[in-house]
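TL;DR need structure tokens for one chain.
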Amino acid sequence: MKQHRKLLLILAIVLSVAVAAGSTMAYLQDTDEDVNVMTLGNVYIEQLEYEREDVEAKGSAAVVKEFQDDKPLYPAVYPDISAWQPGVTQEDAIITWDQLGNEGSWNGIWDPDVMNNEVDKFVFVKNTGNSPAYVRTWFAFELGNLTLQEWWDLTHLNLNTNHWDGLDDLAEYSEETIGGVRYAVAYATYTRNDGILQPGELSRPSLLQVALDKAADNKTVEGFGDSYEILVVSQAVQTAGFDDAETALNAAFTAKHPFAEDMVEKEVAEKEFNATHPVEYNGTRYATLQEGVNMAAANGGGVVKVYASLREADTVMIPDNLEVTIEGVGSTVYRADGFTGNLIDVGSNATLTLKNIALDGGAVWTGEVDATLKRGTTNTGTVATGGLIVATGTNSKIVLNTGTVLQNNDGASAVNPGTRRGNTLTLNQAKIVNNSSGAGAIWGGGHITVNEGSQISYNSSTGLAGAIRMVSSCNLTMNGGEISNNKAAGDGGAIWGYGSSTYNLNGGEMANNESAGTGGAIYTGTYSAIMISDDFELYGNKAANTGAIRFTDHSSLTMNGGKIYGNTQSGESNAFNTWNNSMAITGGSIEDNFSFVGGLGLTIGEADIAGVIYFDLSTNHNTAYLAENFNGFSFRVNEEDEHFSNFNFKPATGYTYVSGDEAKLICLNDGYTVYWDTATNTFRLKAQ
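>> reply
TL;DR here they are.
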């Protein structure tokens, strides 16, 4: 509020903030049809404003307190009073922000030994929600009777241009009339760490201080009345689905500036309406998600929008043959207190698409943080008997698009796409995280596809499969994203598969998963096939037995690309152990050791193999195979087997022996070397 009192001859201008410290616009929603309302996200921020308790203090002595309105703003005074000095040093004046929970210090304040009469106004934004956010802060500086250029020349702003973009160029400002008062309006966008403010993180300050030029006089400031107003409002939007802050914020907040007189009233009204009628279909609002889905079913499908988080007390049924999209604005659908069953049930021939929405099972993870899961393992919240999404019909399709998160389901798999071959689960920049069950975060069959930007992580199992438990004849295609930091008490740190399943690993990574049993990343069923190609990476996985992939009887591996490295078995380098399997490693790279025990054959081609291959001839299969063209590698053969003397490498048809090729095959058995046997056209071992 303006204070009506007479200006003093000493030119005292009172700085009073019309918008109270802490005012934010993180929740505003523009529901115009042409606005992408999902971009606001489930974001919570707090705007914080501070000042020094002692304006002369700096360094560890500079204690900050909450900013207080109504302080005098005098013309600045410098040791050299001839002119404003744009180069006034900021290097020696340091404020530490440790007391605010921010690491380190900031040397950006004007040194009180260089300039006096500056006013501290340290403006921060803190992310108090659970989602990473893009942030910007709007400022409106009162103009009085000044033009923009005159105001710019007479008002000096100490800005943090290292971590905020904007405010430092007059071209960024526009003249706006707000409540009948003229202001210079501009915004600063946070740029530190790619502009992403993580949950719980306090930003660096944007504005630090304000100073009035020494040339200011009574005529200059007479238009301000008895006080000078600075309006400050911060906005935030989720990062999911956007490449940069400017795009995200402009999509979320379409108003020219957020200082409209009815803005706060609009925000409160919208929040209250969204809380009681969070679901919308075809322009009509509903209280529950099921009501919105029912209307979609009655009208041939479409998009059901969720504008606020809500709690469902019963299973949301997606009827047979319905094609429906549930789209949020970063909203979360929780189980209501006492409800532990399936959150969403998908019928036969139905397609459910989720976008920009989270489904939360209600688990609250506490206790000591597990090194692999990056979270506690004690659940003090809901223990579920059902999943977040379960397909109970045939030919059901579940599509998890940008901004979708399935999280915190304990006691049952988060998503069950069903056991029929016609069922599908597709992840497009979606996340399945922080779930726990006895059979993976995903349990089911059909075809599971993980695309770029998706994440299946931090899931745990009290039995088999930390992330995915696949039924027979299931297909997994991984084109990108990550399956990482999952953990199983049994076999398959990330994936445990029944027989006759297919794994197409084309891109992305499967990393840092852990099994207390066998297969740090994958445990395959019999007659399964794994294909590794392109830029897929398999690394950092560990198990008591078999660091990365355990192949069971009559399974196969085809590797013509990708990278395998850093996987361990009981702390020792190990990628996979195999028995009675078919393997063709003709491309990509393997830095880990691995073993091959007899069986259907191992073929080595032009792959880069830095690890050691261990051959154990426990059966009468004593031949290993080479492609027509092959790179060098090291190997060791079990000498205790009776077939050791018959061990040989057989090149593919079309190979012509070149003198020296035997040197590519480095035998690590003491006292043995490799030679070319012209009688059998194979490489064999001989004692030195």
